[in-house]
Design a protein that fits this description.
Helix content of chain C: 25-40%
Largest interface: A-C, 25 and 15 residues
Shape of chain C: rod-shaped
Order of helices and strands of chain A: EEEHEEEEEEEEEHEEEEHHEEEH
Chains: A alpha+beta (320), B alpha+beta (88), C alpha+beta (45)
Oligomer: heterotrimer
Radius of gyration of chain C: 30 Å
Helix content of chain A: 10-25%
Number of strands of chain A: 19
Distance between the termini of chain C: 90 Å
C-alpha cells in the first residue's frame, strides 16, 4: 500500500493538518489480501478496476476530522451469479469531529448480468454512519437503468443497510415486448410492441413484492405470434379452449395490451393481460377480447436464464 | 486420503462440469487415483440421472457443476470457466 | 344519388380466456434429480 503524504503542526494552537495520497490500487490485486483486514462477504469478488484515493485531515483540541476523495474506474465485480462490469464511482467521504461519517457520490454501472442484462445503471448515493445515534442510512436518488429495450427510473429510496426495508415506485418506459417474450425461451413465441407503466415495489426481510403494477402498450399497439411445436399442437387438439387461444395467437395484432402485475414475496408472479385486437387469418379478422392470466415463479425463471447462459457459453466454447 | 480431507487441504476441487479436478500440479498418485475413482462413479450416476430427467448428459453435468460449486464451503477451491483455480 | 344507409351489424368481439402456468420443468426436473443424487450418495459429492 504505497502512500505519500505530508503533515504540519502549529505548536501554539496544537492543531496539526495532514494530507495523504494513495498510489492507484488494482482491485483485482487487493481482492484476496483485503479479506485479511476487512470482512468481505464471500459472494463478492473484485475482478478488475482501479481505486484512486486522497484525503486531508485535521487534529485540533483533541478532535479529528477528515475529508477524502475516492474514485473507482472500470471496475468489474462478481456477486454470486451476478457480474457487474464497467463500474465507475466518484465519492467524497467526510468524518466530522462528532464522529459522523458521510460518503456521498455517484455510481455508474455499464452492465449488470445475471440471466437478464441491465445496462447504464446510474444513481447518486449517500451513506451516513452516525456513531452517536448508532444509525446507518443509505439513500439512493435519481436511480435509473435500461432493461429489455426500455428505461426504468426508481423513486428516491432511503434505508438502513443493516436492516433494509424499502418501499418505492418503479417507472418503466418503452419496454420492448419482443425482448420480454424472449425471456420465456419458448419455441415459436415472438412479439412486437412497446410497454410503459409503473409499479410500487417493496423490499422487506430479504423479499421483493409488487402489488398492482400496471403496464400499458404504447400506440399503435403491436403483435404476438405463437407458432406452437408439434407436441403443443397435439396437446391443444384435446382441449378446445386452448386450441382457440392458440389459433388466435398464430398472428395476433393488438391495438391495446394492458397488464396488471403482482409479484408475491414467495417469488410467484401473476400477470393479468388484457388484449384488444384481431388475427387477420382467423374468423376473417373479427375483433377479439383476449384475457391471458400468466403465473410464473421468477426465481426459477432467473435460474433457468442463468443456466442457459452458461450452457450456451460452454457449448460455444466447445465447438468454436 | 479421503475426498473431504483432500478438498480441505486444497489438493482437489470442484470443476464447473460436475467432476473433481486436481488443483496442485504435484499431486500424489493416491490423490490422482481418488479423483479418477470418484469421477467414474459420478459419470455413471450422471448418465442415468440425466436420462430420467430427460436431458442430455452434458446439460445435466453443467447444472451439477453449478450446484456443487455453489455448495463448496469458503476456503476450498473451485475451477473458474477460464481454467484457473480460485479459493472461495 | 340516393343516400346509402349502412347498418353496421354490432359485431360483438369474440372473448377468449387463457390461463397459463409456466413451469420451468426442465430445470425443476434436473434439480430434483440432483437433490436425490446428493442425498443418496453423499460419499462421492
Amino acid at each position: 500500500l504505497a502512500v505519500s503524504g505530508k503533515t504540519s503542526t502549529q505548536l501554539d494552537s496544537l492543531a496539526s493538518q495532514f494530507s495523504w495520497t494513495l498510489k492507484p490500487i488494482s482491485l483485482a490485486a487487493i481482492n484476496a489480501p483485503l479479506r485479511k483486514y476487512v470482512t468481505l462477504p464471500p459472494e463478492l469478488s473484485l475482478k478488475a478496476g482501479t481505486l484512486f484515493h486522497k484525503g486531508t485531515g485535521q487534529f485540533k483540541n483533541n478532535k479529528l476530522s477528515l475529508m477524502a476523495d475516492n474514485s473507482i474506474r472500470q471496475a468489474q465485480i462478481g456477486w454470486n451469479e451476478t457480474l457487474i462490469e464497467q463500474l465507475d464511482l466518484d465519492s467524497r467521504t467526510t468524518l466530522s469531529t462528532s464522529g459522523t461519517l458521510i460518503d456521498t457520490g455517484n455510481i455508474k454501472l455499464g452492465k449488470v448480468t445475471n440471466g437478464i442484462e441491465i445496462t447504464k445503471v446510474s444513481t447518486h448515493y449517500s451513506y451516513t454512519h452516525d456513531r452517536s445515534k448508532r444509525r446507518d442510512l443509505i439513500s439512493l436518488n435519481a436511480l435509473s437503468a435500461e432493461i429489455l429495450g426500455g428505461n426504468i427510473t426508481v423513486n428516491d429510496i432511503e434505508f438502513d443497510p443493516l436492516n433494509p426495508e424499502i418501499a418505492t415506485q418503479v417507472d418503466i418506459e418503452a419496454l420492448d415486448l419482443g425482448e420480454v417474450l424472449k425471456l420465456e425461451q419458448q419455441q415459436g413465441l415472438s412479439g412486437e410492441g412497446k410497454l410503459s407503466g409503473h409499479f410500487p415495489l417493496q423490499y422487506k426481510a430479504g423479499q421483493v413484492s409488487i402489488s398492482n403494477g400496471k403496464l400499458l402498450s404504447l400506440a399503435p399497439g403491436g403483435k404476438i405470434i405463437f407458432l406452437p411445436s408439434a407436441s403443443v399442437s397435439a396437446y391443444a387438439a384435446t382441449n378446445i379452449g386452448l386450441k382457440t387461444a392458440i389459433d388466435a395467437l398464430e398472428n395476433f395484432h393488438f391495438e391495446l395490451l394492458n397488464i396488471q402485475l403482482n409479484y408475491e414475496p414467495d417469488g410467484t408472479a401473476l400477470l393479468t393481460t388484457r388484449l384488444k385486437g384481431s388475427n387477420p387469418n382467423w374468423h376473417n379478422g373479427h375483433p377479439i377480447d383476449f384475457t391471458i392470466n400468466v403465473e410464473e415463479n421468477i426465481p426459477t425463471l432467473m435460474k433457468t436464464l442463468q443456466f442457459t447462459d452458461k450452457l450456451t457459453r460452454t457449448i460455444e466454447k466447445r465447438y468454436r | 486420503i479421503s475426498m473431504d480431507d483432500a478438498k480441505s487441504q486444497g489438493l482437489i476441487g470442484e470443476r464447473s462440469n460436475g467432476y473433481l479436478g486436481i488443483v496442485t500440479s504435484n499431486a500424489s498418485a493416491d490423490v490422482r487415483k481418488l479423483v479418477d475413482t470418484i469421477n467414474n462413479k459420478r459419470r455413471s450416476a450422471y448418465a442415468n440421472r440425466a436420462s430420467s430427467a430427460g436431458v442430455e448428459q452434458s446439460v445435466f453435468e453443467i447444472r451439477m457443476g453449478q450446484r456443487l460449486q455453489a455448495r463448496t464451503p469458503a476456503g476450498q477451491f473451485i475451477q473458474l470457466p477460464n481454467g484457473n483455480w480460485q479459493k472461495k | 344519388c340516393s343516400p346509402r344507409v349502412e347498418v353496421a351489424v354490432p359485431s360483438e368481439p369474440i372473448t377468449i380466456n387463457l390461463n397459463v402456468k409456466i413451469e420451468h420443468e426442465i430445470l425443476v426436473k434436473v434439480d430434483r434429480e440432483i437433490d436425490d443424487l446428493l442425498s443418496e450418495n453423499s460419499d462421492i459429492f
